[in-house]
């Protein structure tokens, strides 16, 4: 079931008579609720510990059904495969020492841009036919993936991190954790390790067996106006708050000069003269790269919004947010770290719910770059 569907499904665990999963679709978010019957009437006991045998049986049911999101029930911690998922997301260790977190941390040692690359990968995945890891699929003689789309070719990175994590997990917990979930968790960890906020990543996604090169070629671009971006986000069920908050991802990472060459000779949207001069000196060739945020280039903070207030937004799609009456108020609001971090985490959760595959849809890929 895709979460965009408007329905309510009820699944009763025939192995564990006292447990009922309710998959409730509302506002594009499918939530899974565990209700225990017989232990204390019909009271929801999401914070209490299930008997060990119940934990095993509920976990088996999850593996069969593939519900999303999978709630973090304390009583499930003793199940081996449940521990695999916990190890991936770091849920049971205050987000420290997780499999993905360690891989992202190691990647940052050699590439300070790794976190930004992983966050961008997550966006490019979810915005094209949903958060299904379609962006990871390689081309074959009979299959066209999304890696060669104009917004992705020679610019999207972080695949080595995802592939490394997946290879390790297939040894420890085969056919348990999807590539789509790994991408979502890696994006979160890239933000956290750069000083940004944390949030509990919803898991339970399955991987696609298809990709869409045409849809990937229509991702929001660096020269888009605020109005164009708003329409694209609305088409995905995301609002203006989500647009401006998620654009804050440009607070770290780099961009090629050819993505903003038009900004160096145009005053619409405006650009600070000193900033323009600096960029002209840095962009000797179109393939040269510069920091998206010249102030704190490897830190996830609010400097991006301060830059926009000073007409120092690198891309047209960035600076137009400060010029448009539809978005300028939010640019000012998000110069507050608490306001930005709060909205960013909410928007990342909404983004992570787009087009999720569940149940018998898709698969859990053995290798992220190809269909089983």
Structural commentary:
By secondary structure, the chain is mainly α. The protein has three domains: 8-78, no CATH class; 99-216, Peroxidase, domain 1 (Orthogonal Bundle); 226-351, Peroxidase, domain 2 (Orthogonal Bundle), CATH 1.10.420. The chain is 39% helix and 7% strand. A hairpin with a 2-residue loop joins strand 2 (19-26) and strand 3 (29-36). Helix 5 (159-172) packs across helix 6 (179-192). The radius of gyration is 21 Å and the shape is globular. The two termini are 21 Å apart. Residues 1-66, 71-79 and 92-97 have low confidence and may be disordered.
List the topology elements.
Blueprint lengths: L7 E5 L6 E8 L2 E8 L15 H14 L14 H10 L9 H12 L3 H13 L32 H14 L6 H14 L20 H4 L9 H10 L4 H8 L6 E3 L16 H10 L6 E3 L11 H7 L6 H8 L4 H6 L3 H15 L21
Antiparallel strand pairs: 1-2, 2-3, 4-5
- Report the C-alpha radius of gyration, rounded: 21 Å
Shape: globular
Question: How many domains comprise the coordinates?
Answer: 3
Round the mean pLDDT to the nearest integer and report it.
80
Low-confidence stretches: 1-66, 71-79, 92-97
CATH topology of the largest domain: Peroxidase, domain 2
Question: Spatial order of the strands in the main sheet?
Answer: 1-2-3
The CATH class label of the largest domain is Mainly Alpha
**How large a portion of the residues is in β-strands, by DSSP E?**
5-15%
How many strands?
5
- CATH architecture designation of the largest domain: Orthogonal Bundle
Largest sheet: 3 strands, antiparallel
Task: Classify the oligomer.
Answer: single chain
Corresponding CATH superfamily of the largest domain:
Peroxidase, domain 2
Cofactor: heme b; Ca(2+)
GO molecular function: heme binding; lactoperoxidase activity; metal ion binding
Binding site for Ca(2+) 1: 125, 128, 130, 132, 134, 146
InterPro entries: Haem_peroxidase, Haem_peroxidase_sf, Peroxidase_pln, Peroxidases_AS, Peroxidases_heam-ligand_BS, Secretory_peroxidase
